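Before a colleague's protein record goes any further, I have to sign it off. Alongside the sequence sits a line of tokens, each denoting a local backbone shape. I want your independent view on whether this chain really folds as the tokens say. Where you disagree with what is written, explain briefly why. This is what I was given:
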Amino acid sequence: MTVAAILAGPADFAGWRQAARGLVAAGLAPAQVEWRVAGDAPTLFGDTPAPPPPDQPGRFTVPRALLGLAEIAIRHSDPERFALLYGLLWRLQNGEAALMQVATDPAVARLEAMAKAVRRDAHKMHAFLRFRQVETEAGTRHVAWFEPDHHIEEAEADFFVRRFASLRWTIVTRRRTVGWDGEALSLGPGGNRADVPPDDAVEPLWRAYYGAIFNPARVKPNAMRAEMPRKYWRNMPETFEIPRLLAEAPQRVREMVARGGGAPNPQPQRAIHVPAQPIAAPRVEGAMDLLDTARDPSLALADLRQELLGRGDWPEWATRATQPVFGEGPVGAPLLFVGEQPGDEEDIQGRPFVGPAGRLFNRAMEAAGLPRDAAYVTNAVKHFKFTPTGKRRLHQSPDAGDITYYRPFLLREVGLVSPRLVVALGASALQALTGKKLPVMKSRGTIVTGLDGHPIFATVHPSFLLRIPDEDGQAREFETFVEDLKGAGQQVA
């Protein structure tokens, strides 16, 4: 028997718990259950309802470790979250009572990672959501736009009720609208950024406050980028002050020292035999990318190219390439594709995806019904890495060090284009975007979260298809690749 377990909402933990009890009591294995949210179209088992929970709820017990993680992880955006939770519950009730203590179990580890991602998303919502004041016929209301990665709106509403209990406010996301009238919460359908004013009369005060508390002697751009991903910058008034504050930081530090403040010890408790180093002003070179998006993104992309051209610390092999190759496509493209590195033809022309793999990619895009000129394409590594052999240049795969060197340029490029979905073409792109060595074939067709918070859709690189020796195998893989591209397109439709 196969059944459909239908939940009231995407984070309906109570509904999942009740349905799971009935399914386990009925002896239905995970493969016999299709989980979906009310309103979703049936995909496999139709609408055969799941059995009701047993009359005696004490027939089996569930470890608190699972329930605690499940209540958080069920808010994750992974469509397989309900099935993952039920699979763990099934195993716990069928001979693996100590399962939750096995941290290396893939399902347990995945659940832990999902809960961690949801907690981090909630932390970002608490820290980076900014209200704008709006005057309405009913009085003053404070409205905010936020872009959570997961289904956290309802769960985090209580935090804002406690913090802003005396205000009337509305939080708008793509999926949900949460409102507070001073007495009760209301939930409604999602909206878009245009529903929220870009600024208000209070914003200059907030920017002035941020400038007043900014410490020029503790400029740490890398830490700022890591803690405050680019997707939140457009909604935070203080971020528009950061370029000016960073540019002024060295002079402000010099003025502080001139007024009599002691310069900080660059290396406290330093060994006596090591010669002391002079105190330098805080480094701000390259720090302007913190607010690249505050300027015209197209101009910021051009500046990013010039920044790489002016670097004197390229990997040794990169000096043999003809030129660095940056991305191509419209700013704001819904889909951004990341390959491995430019090839021989790309290196010569200075454009991405123009070689054999690029032509195959264009053909697959056309077959998938995706306009090639509406997408942005780039590579994780910006120079052609090769071994010269006579008249030919043999491609060399980039190593972890190469990927790490170019990653800051790639992440800034992605942030400036601001796509709705990033598609990682192959292992190098996936590693560059996530910071992890993930198996492409296992990750293929799934969405993971990138280092900068963007959703990453994984698939193979077009060159993989070119290496398949037989025509039938290549044709089959081409069709699979086209289906992957269609899947990515559906995510942004």
Q: What stands out?
A: Residues 270-294 have pLDDT under 50 and may be disordered.
